[in-house]
Amino acid sequence: MRKFSNIISLAACFVLLWGCDEYDDGELRQNIDAIEQELTETEKRVERLNEEMNSLSALINSSFISYLKQDDEGNYVISYRDHGGETKTVTLATQDDVVTAPIVGAGEFTDGKLYWRTTADNGKTYQWLLDKEGKMMPVGGVPPAMDIDAEGFWIVDGQRLTDKEGNPILANDVSNTLFQKVETDEESGMVRFTLADGSTFEIPVFEALSIRFDAAPVTAVPDRSIPVEIEYTVAGSEAETAYVDYFTAWNVTVKIDKYTRTISVKLDENAEEGNVVVIASAGGNTVLKPLFFTYGTAQIDPPTWDPQFGTGAEVALEGEFTEFDIRVSANIDYEVTIAEECQSWLKPAPKTRAETVTTTHSFVADYYENDSGADRKGSITFSNRPYGITVTLGVRQSPVVPDTPTEPGIATGADLVAFAKAVNAGGSTDRWENASGEVVLLNDIDLTELTEWTPIGQGKATGSPSYNTLTNPFTGVFDGQGFTIKGIRWTFNVENETTHLHGLFGAIKDATIKNLKLGAAGDQITLAGTSQNVVSAGALAGYAEGSTIVNVTNNVSVILTGDNPDATLMMLAGIAGCIKSTTIGGETKDDAVINNGDVKTGRITNTANGGTGMNIGGICAFTLGAGTKLNYCTNNGEISAPTGRGGGLVGTLGGSTTEENGTVIANSTNNGTIQDDAIGQYGGSKDYYNYKRMGGLVGGTVTNNNLRIEYCTNNGNVFSQLGCRTGGFVGHNQATIVGCVNKGTILANITYASGEPQHGPGWACGYSGKKLVTQCAKGGRVGEWDTYKDNPGSAPEATNDNALCYKNGDYFDPSQNY
After folding, report:
1. What are the two backbone dihedrals, phi and then psi, of residue 396, each rounded to the nearest 5 degrees?
2. Which end of the chain is more exposed for a tag (fewer CB within 10 A), N or C?
3. What is the value of pTM for the model shown?
4. Transmembrane ranges (predicted)?
């Protein structure tokens, strides 16, 4: 770089030579000054580049980082421990948006190590830097020395740097930014460095000594007579031997309890503010950390806004370009931050008006279209960092809905969302109805982008179970016309008090849903949380009353990841959670209703096995009332819950029926595997046999009053890890069973009393009322779980002696079956 000064000296000589005549040398002098300034800046940048390279080499060669902070200029100040045990400090400048790649950088080779490399085309291609012996130069050793020769070309360790064609590289653009990003990963305890060329490396963080408080830097003290209690934590390698005390105190009285690790601070009488500096010292390391206190309160009240933009917990906007105001009352200063994920469409409006106490902030949301119907969401935060006070407000914008569809019906996800909102608001659905007054799908609809869903029609439980307070249930005809609604991957929080009914439809009443395919492979409804209410969920509907469901195929699984409290009925099913006086399926196979989705739970608290337990079924979890019928239904999904009642078609067959008007399941088939403790909550112990009732068709029934199961087939295996009452048809049966066939393997350990089987498997039922099973064909296999679980196909074949587990000889009549 010193050779560059020769250029300046030569130019100065020209000025002296020409200075004796009338030549105006002003412009030349200005040019010389500019050249000198540019050369000085270039020299500084090259010097800085060498410093960055030295820093990179030192960091790569360090043991761990003990300190990482940003200074006032945004540079990172980093203290590290080298392998010799010495603590050193470097300061790194970073640049997120790297426009010019530095001439030298580091890249990872196939051996996983970083080596020095150069670029002559702004990062498009790179060449490894080689030493005099032609070997690659590892980062962490002695870094190469960068410079610029007298002719303006790059030199490395005294030799000109060349491109891949062997040409010298002109130093026409000098970037000294080697580092793009420095990030701390709290979980892994690593600092990740991203270099300008995108390559990364990590170094562990290991503090020798630090002290942290469970309070914000500034604490508001509303009552001077009451001390403020602040807990502290000492961390780092020297933490166990650390001495903690207060270093200085102003306008406060301080007490430190080293056993409870608590700092008690009392603001002096009449003091408006005060502070204390806490010191922690150990092993030659000392940390000083201040705490500040102000008299009075510090608050940011929840924001308010015009109710036309929603009255819930978030601002709800339509898809049109919308300007709205948010009013915030506070007695401290605060920052307003729009979340990064919504900054492209949600912006501060030009006018923000300040009043004496309340400030009105104006925002604007851009026009929004989305055929999927998915809302876009963001948030606005009002915060005061010193006091540690933050108030966050959610903002949600729905897409614009076209005023006049070209053809009446639902053609997009946005149409479906608009239809759901209309039903839930008690509004008209005319715009989606055909000439016959039926709501129709016009094509397949993919809801993958729609990660949240409000069920169509809502209701709250008024009994166990009953839903006599439905809110705007769907009451019309919904014709899918053979099309599919897919991309259903929703999570419902059962703690939601708005509704206890979950599914595509929450509640339908006096309605018809037909000719619809629901979901695709991988689609799932997840139920999270815990509710003390009676929750009902189905992929199609949570609750159906006086309705008809025909020619529907479901591919959506229903999975409970939350809990079911003890003695609290919960109903989960592939089609409808709970039905009352409703028909599922039709009079022919053309009207068949098919479930392909799994219905499963994890561990649950509830241990009841009846009407207050967990009820799950492939088609329906719980039936209520006279006039209920399942006809030509098929379940192919896996069904499992550790307790309660579970069946391939229905969990509990019950409700208020009469001799004239009963409940019937007919012409239906289960192909799915039915299990209880598949997840191992009870370790497969038969001591818990009374927690469950389970069958290939139905889990359990109430007392028979015109309950019938007719001409149905179970092809699925039914496995009880708990040894509950388990049947190919019904686990615990009081219904009339006629003309049914079992072909599945039924396994459960047997519990005896006085030498007689009480709980366990039967190819027909675990338990059945006297001679209720007639005209049925024995089939499949029956055995104990512990004996045949590893090879179910080796279990004994069905016989007249294992039709029922409980009192087979008394309650099963072989002459009435075959």
Report:
1. -130, 135
2. C
3. 0.66
4. none
Say which DSSP state 806 is in: S
Give the span between the Cα atoms of 741 and 780, in whole angstroms.
Answer: 9
For the residues of 700-755, what is the DSSP string, one character each? EE-S-SSEEEES-EE-S-EEESS--EEESSEEEE-SEEES-EE-SEEEE--EEETT
Q: How far is CA 160 from CA 171, 443, 721, in A?
A: 11, 67, 77
- DSSP character string of 64-122: EEEEEEE-TTSPEEEEEEETTS-EEEEEE-B-SS--S--SEEEEE-TTS-EEEEE-SST
Beta bridge partners of 294: 220, 273
**473 preceded by a cis bond (ω within 30 of 0):** no
Tokens 């030199």 belong to which residue?
Answer: 155
- HSE of 573, CA atoms in CB hemisphere, 13 A: 38
Residues 493 and 374 in one domain: no
Angle, in degrees to the nearest 10, between helices 4-18 and 26-60? 170
Mean pLDDT by 10 residues, the chain (818 residues): 41 39 49 58 67 70 63 69 67 54 73 80 78 83 76 78 77 59 70 72 72 92 95 88 92 94 95 92 83 92 92 89 91 90 87 57 88 88 87 91 76 94 93 95 96 93 80 97 98 90 97 98 96 95 97 98 95 97 94 98 94 96 92 98 97 85 96 96 89 97 89 98 97 96 98 94 96 96 97 97 96 95
CA 450 to the chain's CA centroid? 14
SS3 call for 578:
strand
Looking at residue 794, what DSSP letter applies?
A: G
The contacts of residue 584 (CB under 8 Å, 6+ apart) are 549, 550, 575, 576, 593, 619, 620, 629, 630, 631, 633
- Looking at the structure of the chain, the number of domains it has is 5
The answer to whether position 662 is within a domain reads: yes
Query: CA–CA separation, 611 vs 625, rounded Å?
Result: 14
- The residue among 248, 270, 295 that closes a domain is 295
- Between CA 64 and CA 78 the distance in angstroms is 11
What number of residues does the chain have?
818
Residues 507 and 610 in one domain: yes
Chain mean position to CA 470: 30
Q: 249 is written with which tokens?
A: 């105190």
Q: Is residue 432 part of a domain?
A: no
Q: What is the structure's pLDDT at 364?
A: 87
pLDDT of res. 195: 72
Residue 416 belongs to a domain: no
Same domain, residue pair 545 and 595? yes
Q: What is the pLDDT of residue 534?
A: 93
Encoding tokens for residue 258? 């080293």
If we measure between CA atoms, which residue out of 55, 54, 62 comes closest to residue 204? 62
Q: Say how far residue 625 (Cα) sits from the centre of its chain.
A: 39
* Residues linked to residue 400 through DSSP beta bridges, in sequence order: none
Q: For the chain, give the longest Cα–Cα distance.
A: 137
At 802, list the tokens. Answer: 């294992």
Distance CA 630, CA 649 (A): 9
| 663-666 and 628-631 strand pairing | parallel
The answer to whether the CB of 673 falls within 8 A of the CB of 646 is no
* Structure-block tokens of residue 488: 């259903």
Q: Would you state the pLDDT for residue 189? A: 66
* Amino acid, single-letter form, for residue 342: C
Query: What six digits make up the tokens of 529?
Result: 């949380």
pLDDT the model gives residue 69: 67
Using an 8 Å Cβ cutoff, are 696 and 741 in contact?
no
Residue 552, beta-bridge partner list: 516, 593
Indicate the helix (H) or strand (E) that contains 28.
Answer: helix 26-60
Q: What's the pLDDT at 540?
A: 99
Q: Which DSSP helix (H) or strand (E) runs through 531? A: none
User: Domain residues for 245?
Assistant: 210-295
Same domain, 73 and 191: yes
For tokens 């409000």, the residue is: 454
Spatial CA neighbour of 750 closest among 706, 689, 684 = 689
Q: How many CB atoms lie within 10 A of CB 484?
A: 18
